[in-house]
Request: fold
Amino acid sequence: MSGETTGKRKKRNPNLRLLESGEGTQKKRKRRRNAGRDRKPEKLRFGKAKRIGILTAVLTCLLLLVAGGFFYVITNYKVTTVHVDGNVHYTNEEIMEMVMGGRFGNNSLFLSLKYRDKGIEGVPFVETMDVDIEAKDTIRITVYEKALAGYVRYLGRYVYFDKDGIVVETSEEETAGIPQVTGLAFDHVILHEKLPLDKPELFDEILNITQQLSKYDLSADRIYFNANYEVTLYFGEAKINLGENQDIDEKIMKLQYILPDLVGKSGTLDMREYSEDTKTYSFEQDS
Reply:
């Protein structure tokens, strides 16, 4: 047949597929991620028994460290030297027992923590006590006792009062170095309140006497006031009649030189007329 041409079409490959833009790239990335996940190393895991073993070992090490530290503190901070200052009413041993009593009381590190920035209060006859750590094995206890002027006996107890006549303590025991004051009239005693005397200014006189006695290292057994408030001091069997509150300082200053001659004697030393000018006194021995 003339003029006719027969066109032949190429057959399409059935396995050929058209991809949209970017689709191939996304799939490649996805395969890379999956491959990366597949290549991640597995986590290290221990069995239950092994974990318990590790925990036990750690705890044992910690316990050994604590025990070692405790042993070091106990052995290297043991107190072997104690200095006690300022105590009169209590002995050194009694003060040490108050401060160092109880468990670990002989350990300077423990004491430094226990008494850091604070003193010890609430002890009869004591205002406060300070504890200072001078070295690992040495401490110093400083006692600040209450300033006592004297004591009176009342209902079988020793009633101690300060320079203002305030009752600071009552006790069944007598304290050495603090004179007894007799001849005072009062009908009641209240702790931390003033002794109810008819002549309150008498406390100033008592304090002055005790201070003068302490100044010259004299320790009177008793201070007696009669109805006219004349003063008599008792030193053993010797009585010192000072009279009224005049020239007391001069009389006690002279007394320090007279008393050694009165040791073992019983009698009365009359210093009522003694003064810096007259210097008159006499001693009458008991028959």
The radius of gyration is 47 Å. Residues 1-7 have pLDDT under 50 and may be disordered. The chain has two domains: 81-145, 148-285. The first strand starts at residue 81 and ends at 85.
